[in-house]
Write a structure and sequence with these properties.
TIM Barrel; 10% strand; binds iron/sulfur cluster; alpha/beta
Length: 499
């Protein structure tokens, strides 16, 4: 009879562990609503576990007055009880973890496969020690900047080191782009450390923003102005050469009088030399044309890569004809080339071909690329000053086929109006790209957590967005996956905070 009680008890414990503890963990790491997190499922499971253990002990002890062979049987029973208790604890833990199978299939798999992206599978010897081979004029600033320059955006995931930045300077890179909100201000701190002693050889670009986020209409002149001395302190310098209106998504923000008043005063004080705008917004054409027409901007930083829409080339040409320096970013068209295995046999790597395509446009002053390893410097700088070849074009064509239906084109936005939930579809897919392709999981989950509306809204939606994507992306499906990928914060954090 005792044995039956024990079996029933363990069965109930497994059920409680699977439904209560497993369900609670699943909700927690999927981030549905952490404010609802409760210790009750954990305590209930623990209680069930303890009851089962006590019952197992009670069964294992058997009748008190046993002698002879009965006593031996009691020992066997005790051993069996210990095995049952151990097995029960293990099975309870496993049943709770079984609920996390989806998390592993989508997020966990990616975390364990993290490796530096943007890197050719096979490094060629001649890339070693590559240096900048060409400098170009940055529009009306008259600065001559390295055609391949350094960014330090979210894609680095905070992995850029002072050492690699110093190496870049030694190899001739002289344009550096940073922002207070890259890696929670760490990008500015590291760059400040790296440029000590080389400040006068560097063209330094940062953004009008704070480590906690962007500035825009509604902020006072003083608030804009305060952002820059804070950057200067982190960068250990008395001036930035260029200050961008950061990730500008509207003409209202672009032309915010307070921002312009703040810039004029900072310029007078010698703290900022030139004004720029960075944008990869869906309103890019409108924002860029307004920037050109205003004649207030010296530099524009735009997302630009092979296969970019034709209108963008015209915008860049307009900017250049107004002598505005154009800096290209997001040049790798998603950096999904890990699957492009045949690039091993090509003369140059995918990254080099993509850079050469961008730089084949004479209106581009330079491109910025986020990197954090010496091998990346070797590979990337090898493309400096080189021209696009036929084999590069073939490689880029193969890449286009590889990413069909997966890459959300920057500044497209064709689907945004179709979403009744007003989800920032393009931003969500960009954060997914940081997570999956750039290996910047922590940064990607941080950015996603800041969004007001998340892609769990896609669950149960009739998906009116489905026919809007010219790139053939199955938006509802990709977004639902992105939500799982980007909200498994707990385990992601535990695993990633090791780095
Ligand atoms: S499926 Fe998602 S993205 Fe598409 S319309 Fe619905 S909520 Fe918006
Ligand atoms: S998902 Fe498609 S339609 Fe929407 S912004 Fe991206 S590329 Fe454009």
């Amino acid at each position: 009879m005792r044995g039956i009680y024990v079996c029933i008890s363990w069965l109930l414990t497994l059920v409680v562990s699977y439904w209560l503890l497993g369900g609670s963990l699943e909700r927690l790491i999927e981030g549905y609503d952490r404010s609802d997190a409760s210790i009750l499922p954990g305590l209930t499971t623990l209680g069930a576990l303890l009851i089962s253990l006590i019952l197992t002990l009670w069964w294992a002890r058997g009748p008190e007055d046993s002698v002879g062979p009965e006593k031996r049987s009691r020992r066997r029973r005790f051993l069996l009880g210990a095995i049952a208790a151990f097995g029960g604890i293990l099975a309870s833990a496993l049943s709770a973890l079984m609920r996390l199978g989806d998390w592993y299939a989508i997020s966990g798999r990616h975390i364990f496969l993290v490796r530096p992206p943007y890197q050719a599978d096979v490094a060629r010897e001649e890339w070693s020690g590559s240096r900048v081979a060409r400098y170009r004029r940055l529009g009306r600033t008259e600065a001559l900047v390295s055609d391949i320059s350094l960014g330090s955006g979210s894609g680095t995931g905070g992995r850029q080191t002072v050492e690699v930045l110093r190496q870049a300077i030694e190899r001739g890179v002289n344009y550096f782009d940073t922002a207070p909100d890259y890696s929670g201000a760490n990008s500015e701190y590291r760059l400040g450390e790296a440029i000590k002693g080389s400040r006068d050889e560097i063209f330094l670009a940062s953004k009008f923003c704070r480590p906690t986020g962007h500035l825009g209409p509604g902020h006072s002149v003083e608030e804009y102005m305060e952002a820059v001395p804070s950057s200067l302190k982190r960068l250990q310098t008395d001036r930035v050469d260029l200050i961008h209106i950061h990730s500008c998504n509207s003409v209202e923000r672009l032309l915010d009088e307070n921002a312009h008043e703040a810039f004029d005063r900072l310029k007078q004080q010698g703290k900022a030399r030139f004004l720029g705008v960075s944008t990869h917004t869906p309103n890019l054409v409108e924002v860029a044309n307004a920037a050109i027409d205003s004649d207030r901007f010296d530099v524009m930083m735009l997302a630009y890569h092979h296969g970019a829409w034709p209108q963008l080339g015209q915008v860049i040409q307009r900017a250049a004809s107004s002598d505005i320096g154009v800096v290209a970013m997001k040049t790798l068209r998603g950096a999904k080339h890990r699957g492009l295995l045949w690039s091993r046999d090509e003369r140059d790597s995918y990254t080099q071909a993509a850079f050469k395509w961008v730089l084949s446009d004479p209106n581009i002053s330079c491109l910025v690329i986020s990197l954090w390893e010496e091998a990346q410097l070797d590979e990337f700088l090898y493309a400096s000053g080189r021209t696009l070849s036929d084999s590069d074009r073939v490689l880029l064509g193969r890449y286009r086929d590889l990413i069909a239906g997966k890459h959300c084109r920057p500044h497209c936005g064709a689907c945004l109006q179709s979403c009744p939930e007003e989800l920032q579809i393009d931003d969500i897919l960009r954060y997914r790209m940081y997570f999956e392709d750039y290996g910047a999981q922590r940064e990607a989950t941080r950015l996603y957590a800041q969004l007001g509306k998340k892609a769990d809204a896609c669950t149960g939606c009739s998906a009116p967005c489905s026919n809007f994507c010219p790139e053939g992306i199955r938006i509802a499906e990709r977004l639902a996956e992105s939500h799982i990928l980007l909200t498994h914060i707990l385990l992601t954090h535990i695993l990633l905070t090791r780095g």
